[in-house]
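Your task:
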Amino acid sequence: STINALPVTLIEFEAIKSNEDVLLKWSTAMEENNHCFEIEKLQENIWLKIGEVNGNGNSSIIHNYQLIDKYAFSGSIENKLFYRLLSVDYSGLKHYSKIIAIDKLEESNNNNYLIYPNPFTNEINIRFKNANSEMSKLELFDAMGRVIFTKTEIEKSAKDAIMLSKLHDLPKGVYYLKFNLNGSLKVENIIKN
């Protein structure tokens, strides 16, 4: 094995604007002795840790991760935000990813919604970027295509979000959220940890 090899093989690391928030997403193809990920943001020329997400130790399958930097833009005078990812192995060694940037003027991702956390444990939130978004019939399927539940009466909270809760009894695995948003059908895959 190579000396100081990265403990993870990173497939992607990206930042997606969602109103004032920034969704940071990354995926690994392989992890070796990977204890956790630390996410840092450049603030006044200093890298500050804004979050930590557990790694998967030793793994050779794809894992998807995400973290939301809440109110990233409203709390900043900067027009561009910079992030980097650190993978931390069990001995405490840190390995840095490339630096990514997101522009304040960049269009929010064109999905008009944000689903988080993904992976989830107990609840799923669907947040709409447009207060006038209309959602009808929300269904959750397992990987075999079986309907876990269906929701037809959809009440949005004051923050234009829908929360699906009490999901801790669901077995771990891949699930699919299917819903109709403003007349168009959306399907998103989510992972239960």
Notes: The mean pLDDT is 83. The longest strand covers residues 21-43. DSSP finds no helices and 14 strands in the chain. The CA atoms of residues 144 and 175 lie 9 Å apart.
